[in-house]
């Protein structure tokens, strides 16, 4: 009777012992590439990016010759206006005139100035938004770190469309409204 008890106890313990062996986790720990792990393999030469905007620039000076890949449509300008009012108006003013309570203290420039509108390229404006300047913080992704106030690449280009194609119209409308009052 005693031998039967030992055999029965051993038989009951076998599944538990089998689960402790290394082969019980082979499917989970097999060689594979997990998402977001390791270095990204570079794209083959002459490959065509799909749904992306090239933005590999080192600093704002390198961004100067970049062309805006997003057409300045009314929809893009409206989206840029919304983002401008959220992120930029605190320092540059609602119409970009540099007339906010903060702008005098920090030296924010007037974006509706003829120098900005005529001489600064869209790439330079995008680079300034991305990397910041002497006083202005970066709203891009500097050195691979992402902050809570960062705009993605497309959003930055929408802001550029607004600054270059919609800001002057909004400033003129605000000036006419203020003069009429």
Automatic annotation (TrEMBL):
- Span of domain Cytochrome c: 75-167
Q: InterPro entries, from UniProt? A: Cyt_c-like_dom (IPR009056), Cyt_c-like_dom_sf (IPR036909)
Q: Which residues form the signal peptide?
A: 1-20
Q: Which residues form a coiled coil?
A: none
Keyword Transmembrane assigned to the entry: answer is no
Q: Which key words are in the record?
A: Heme, Iron, Metal-binding, Signal
From which organism does this entry originate?
Candidatus Tenderia electrophaga
According to the UniProt entry, its GO molecular function terms are: electron transfer activity; heme binding; metal ion binding
Matches recorded under Pfam families: Cytochrome_CBB3
State the name under which the record lists this protein.
Cytochrome c domain-containing protein
């Amino acid at each position: 009777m005693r031998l039967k008890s030992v055999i029965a106890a051993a038989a009951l313990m076998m599944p538990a012992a089998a689960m402790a062996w290394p082969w019980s986790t082979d499917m989970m720990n097999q060689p594979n590439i997990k998402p977001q792990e390791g270095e990204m393999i570079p794209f083959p030469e002459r490959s065509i990016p799909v749904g992306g905007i090239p933005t590999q620039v080192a600093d704002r000076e390198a961004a100067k010759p970049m062309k805006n890949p997003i057409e300045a449509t009314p929809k893009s300008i409206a989206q840029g206006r919304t983002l401008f009012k959220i992120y930029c108006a605190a320092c540059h003013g609602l119409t970009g005139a540099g007339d906010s309570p903060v702008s005098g203290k920090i030296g924010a420039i007037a974006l509706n100035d003829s120098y900005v509108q005529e001489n600064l390229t869209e790439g330079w404006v995008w680079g300034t938004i991305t990397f910041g300047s002497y006083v202005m913080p970066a709203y891009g992704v500097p050195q691979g770190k992402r902050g809570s106030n960062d705009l993605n690449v497309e959003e930055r280009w929408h802001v550029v469309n607004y600054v270059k194609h919609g800001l002057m119209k909004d400033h003129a409308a605000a000036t006419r409204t203020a003069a009429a009052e």
